[in-house]
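Action item from last meeting closed. Structure (170 res):
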């Protein structure tokens, strides 16, 4: 695991403090909270971390990446698939360091995909990129008696009515 990330990130760590922190966040043995303004590359960093993890696991379902919205989950899925496609079909980018790193990480995932016969690009559902609500729903479906739900709950886009009801009940 470390052998995969270390050579790829060593050149990043020689740059700015931001680059060093980004490289540190790719350490799969540790957990991180990433806070940064819009447009700073948080999604790219998350994609890179996801690629690092995919290159190490036995099955892609071992990884769960959560977001707040379906749109963000869809964007992450699209970007992971785009990285894999580019790593399979295009040469390594030389103009932007973080794009080269994403390409290298995606190449490692493609190698792992071939070794384990995941066929991830044609079996996209194996990537567990989902909202927090959908993760919770999948957990309650696995344990219906313990969750004490009669029917399966369904996530809703606008829960403001439920929030008001909960506030009144409190």
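Sequence:
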């Amino acid at each position: 695991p470390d052998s995969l990330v270390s050579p790829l990130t060593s050149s990043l760590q020689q740059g700015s403090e931001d680059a060093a922190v980004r490289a540190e966040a790719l350490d799969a043995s540790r957990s991180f909270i990433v806070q940064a303004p819009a447009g700073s590359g948080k999604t790219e960093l998350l994609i890179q971390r996801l690629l690092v993890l995919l290159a190490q696991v036995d099955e892609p379902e071992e990884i769960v990446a959560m977001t707040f919205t379906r749109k963000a989950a869809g964007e992450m899925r699209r970007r992971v698939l785009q990285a894999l496609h580019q790593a399979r079909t295009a040469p390594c980018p030389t103009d932007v360091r973080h794009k080269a790193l994403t390409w290298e990480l995606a190449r490692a995932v493609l190698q792992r995909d071939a070794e384990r016969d995941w066929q991830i690009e044609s079996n996209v559902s194996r990537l567990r990129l989902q909202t927090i609500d959908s993760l919770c729903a999948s957990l309650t479906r696995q344990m219906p008696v313990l969750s004490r739900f009669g029917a399966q709950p369904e996530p809703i886009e606008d829960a403001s009515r439920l929030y008001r009801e909960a506030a009144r009940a409190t």
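Note appended to the action item: The beta strands are 64-67, 128-131.
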